[in-house]
Amino acid sequence: MSETPGTPMLKAEAIRSGYHGVTVIKGLDFEVGNEVFAVLGANGAGKTTLLATLARLIPLMGGRIQFRGEDVSDLPPYETAGRGIGYVPQEKGVFAELTVLENLTVGGMIGERSQDERMAEVFELFPDLETLQTQTAGTLSGGESRMVAAGRAMMQDPILLLLDEPTAGLSPLYVDMFFEKITEIHETRGVGIVLAEQNATKALEVADRVMVLSLGEAFLIEAATELTTKQLKEGYRI
Amino acid sequence: MNLDWLDAFLVSGLFFVVMIIGLALLLHIQLGLARIANFGVVGFWGIGMYSFGVLFVKVDWPFGDPWPFLISAAFGSVVAGLSGLLVGWLIADLDEDGVLVGTLGFATAVWILATTEQDLTGGALGMGGLRFPYDIGTVKANETLWLVLLIIVVALILYYVHRVHRAPYGRLLTAIGDNEPLARSLGKATFRTKIWLFAFASAGMGLLGAMYGVMERFLETANIGIDITLAAIVGLILGGTARVWGAVIGVAISVGVFDILVQSYLPLPRDWYSQAIPVLREAIFGAVLIIVLLFRPLGVLGDMRRDKLMRSMHGD
Questions:
Q1: Do A16 and A134 belong to one domain?
Q2: Interchain pair B178, A78: CB under 8 A
Q3: What's the average model confidence in pLDDT over A6-19?
Q4: Which end of chain B is more exposed for a tag (fewer CB within 10 A), N or C?
């Protein structure tokens, strides 16, 4: 297992979770520092469940989660969000009935900095959102919706951002743009990122370390540069 | 003041319409914004009315008017609010079916309580002894002033709802109604928000119940039937659940047209009023509901913001 760069932000110890009594995540141990930490795996590996568990949207069946040294295992999601964990779900990531601007302001209801300041930063990160701000989110394209969801998460002033397959189903242009933004968010704004992705090639370009999930278990955790195609294929059970 | 020009039926009809507008506005915050389908409106309204009535009539008040009314109305409103807190706590995490059953069940429980607790409520025989907290002359004058006071109360509710729409709290409610897990992941205490919303709206419904009790001067269990809930829901859906003015317009063209124009001004045979009209009213309301949901699901006003947006997108 590779070393966590710097002090761990997030520490998962033997975490188990799932739905309706079915265990999907089967005892994961890992740490995330101020880095881009990619979670790769085939469909059904448990990537979405893992991120929802870290965001505290799914209760733990066992184990514990620490965030910046504090045990957040029993905290409701609205309290973990307040501590700096931002979450961008794969689907239904926007409030369809609200405008783009309203979506962003809902994200900015927590945090201490002024909303205007944060909004300006989000518009700088995603300039398209500024022109779309009066549009109802339900009428946006897939790529625009993902931008709104990511922008709204950034309005929370996150310390750690959980991104669940942000480029799934998007055109190549949007995919490239999103991976550039992920790098920008991490490098210029100092936000740690946990990135669940199907697109292993692109994820490995931006990630510092990788965890390959296989049927809810960590097949390996490795520096992105050290991961071999053979390991990846074994992890994907190809 | 000479009020000969004013029809007594018009005053009581308008009172009912304005009261239903108030209920529909409070329901709008629950259903239109937070998507909580409260089918127990009459329960919160009724428990407020009876709590008010019991305290107002049973206590030997040492103070003069308007204190007995004010204290009793506050009590009715608080009891309704606490009931809303309890029911809200029970239903906040349930799906739509659970909310429907829970709120309908509460309304039924209130009706059973009012019917069986005869020592307190008078049961099916009803309870008299209610009166206006003032006397300015004739019955019609007192009723007209009471209507004016109700209009002021409902106008304040309308103003509050309007403010909610423009406030971060309104966006939070819409976000919860739209996608609650997402709102939760953004740091919003959705459960707490929902139960306090339920408590507040229920307290408002209870206050309207207390005011209705004074207008009727007699409480009976026949008053707390499902038709109150239906009138508020049909009016709100007809006008548009997502719009502030949807409740006002919808109730005016459903309850207003039927309970004022048809019942008071159409030359119908007298025996129709006791038998045919009430049944016909519910049948027409049901039909209107189906037609609106089929052909204009966003109501008469719809969601103007979205309509305007769609028109601009299509270059109209």
A1: no
A2: no
A3: 89
A4: C
User: Tokens 């950034």 map to which residue?
Assistant: A154
| A138 shares its domain with A100 | yes
Closest chain B residue by Cα to residue A84: B187
For chain B, which residues score pLDDT lower than 50?
307, 309-316
Q: How many CA atoms lie within 13 A of A146 on its CB side?
A: 20
Q: What ipTM does the predicted assembly reach? A: 0.81
- From A57, A105, A134, residue closest to B185, measured CB to CB: A57
- Do residues A2 and A112 both lie within one domain? no
pLDDT value, residue A208: 93
In a domain? residue A112:
yes
Please give the Cα distance from A88 to B150 (Å, whole number).
Answer: 47
A80 in the same domain as A7:
yes
Q: Name the average pLDDT for chain A.
A: 89
Task: Please report residues of B whose CB lies closer than 8 A to that of A153.
Answer: 186
- Give residue A90's pLDDT: 85
Give the residue numbers spanning the domain of A127: 95-154
In words, the CATH class of domain B11-313 is: mainly alpha
Based on the fold, state whether residues A136 and A169 are members of the same structural domain. Answer: no
Start-end of H helices in chain B: 8-27, 41-58, 67-91, 96-116, 118-121, 139-166, 168-178, 180-185, 190-216, 226-239, 244-251, 276-295, 304-313
Stretch A98-115: mean pLDDT: 88
A contact residues 165-224, partner B, Cβ 8 Å cutoff? none
